[in-house]
Structures are given as C-alpha cells and as structure tokens.
C-alpha cells in the first residue's frame, strides 16, 4: 500500500514538475518578447551585467544543505530550523557583500547606474534565502503542485508588473522589479501553503 502511494505521488509530482517547466518557461518567453518590444537592448544588457553576481551568490546561499535535507530520511524541526537560519545568515552576508561591491561593479563596467540596480536587484538573494526551506519541505513531500502554483503565480504577476512598468517608461527598473516581484510572490505562495515555522 505504501509503495503504491509513493508511486502515485511520484507520477503526480512528475506531472506537476513538467507543467511548471513548460508553463513557467513558456510564459517567461512570452513576457520577454513583449518586453523586448518596449525596452532597448541596452536596458536588458544592464541587468545582464549583474546576473552572474546574483546567480553565484544564490548558489552559495543554499550551499547544498537543502539537498542534504531532501536525502535525509527523518528530518526533525531542529534540522529544518538550522538550515533555515544558516540560509538566512548566508543570504544576508552575500547581500551585504554585493551592496559593498556595487560601486566596484559599476566602475568595472563603466556604468554608474549599476550601483543602484545592483543593490536593489540583489534583494532577491534575501527573498530566496527565506524561501529555500519551504521549497525543500514541499519537494521532500513530493508536493510539486504547490511549487508549480508558486512558480506560475510569480511568473504571471511579475510579468504583468514589468510590462506595466516598461509601458510607463521605467526602463531597466521594469526588469529589476520583475525579478524581485517574481521571487516575492513565489515566496508568499510557498509560505501560505506550507505552515512550517522556524
């Protein structure tokens, strides 16, 4: 009985994971096409310059601890709480590093606008650090439906918000807020569906 239940959960998880990949990426491309019609390549380029710093930081924030919890058979509340607080501290640390490094990044690329863009965009590091444990718990429970809902909600809300901002002339900031709103909405949905507290 337990084996058939696990099989059913796995099939359902695979289905929702596929739905997330197809719809989230598909909608992301659609919003990207519309944004490309409104914004200039330079504005996309500004965000592209700092994407590497944000992406590398997010890898270090998790440090593989979430994967270790997924593999562990019996996780206690202390395990989840420890990883949550470690992620939070690492998120804050890397946010501060990028905040301090922002003027140097701007000087390297010879673009003063990158100081504020880098500092605001890197807020997504903090949001991700708060959300990692919720996603880990849902993954461990094979609840990909909730993860899919959060991803789709984030993609749609952030996509619409960025289109509105771009239409009203906010330029690169429409892309910056797209990133932050996406992570914030995903985080809000995950926390609303999973009642675990640190």
Structure description:
The chain has 198 residues and is mostly helical. Helices cover 86% and strands 0% of the residues. The chain is built from eight helices and no strands. Helix 7 runs antiparallel to helix 8. The chain is globular and about 55 Å long. The protein starts with a helix and ends in a 5-residue tail after the last helix.
Helix content: over 70%
Largest sheet: number of strands, sense, barrel closure: none
The radius of gyration over CA amounts to: 18 Å
Order of helices and strands: HHHHHHHH
Proportion of residues in β-strands: under 5%
- Low-pLDDT residue intervals, each spanning 5 or more residues: none
> Tally of extended strands?
0
Quick check: average pLDDT? Answer: 87
Query: What general outline do the C-alpha atoms trace?
Result: globular
State the end-to-end CA separation. Answer: 33 Å
What structural class do helix, strand and pairing data support?
mainly alpha
Q: Helical stretch count?
A: 8
